[in-house]
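Technical annex B. To support the medicinal chemistry partners, we prepared a structural model of the target in complex with zinc ion, based solely on the information shown next.
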Amino acid sequence: MKKLILMLFTIVLFSCNKKEETHSVEHSTSLIDTKNPLNKLKYDNKIDFYCKMDITKYGVSDTTHYKGKLYGFCAKMCKDEFLKNPEMYLAKK
Ligand SMILES: [Zn+2]
């Protein structure tokens, strides 16, 4: 009987670990992650300049400072694209 309990316990532990692993997605489409400290910051943009995603809804995974303002992006790729030509993206706003 003791063995069975131990086995069940291991299965529960294992399934918990698996859940956490699936958390790292490059271009996140899941709803905002409140555990992410980046989502607690205030940004000067609400929409990701590159992919037009609503970062207030889906969260931020990368940020950049540009001319004293803080901008959030859903992914590093979007930030890099913005930094290639920030003036163009800001003019579109
Ligand atoms: Zn993006």
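Notes passed to the chemistry partners:
The mean pLDDT is 84.
The two ends are 66 Å apart (CA to CA).
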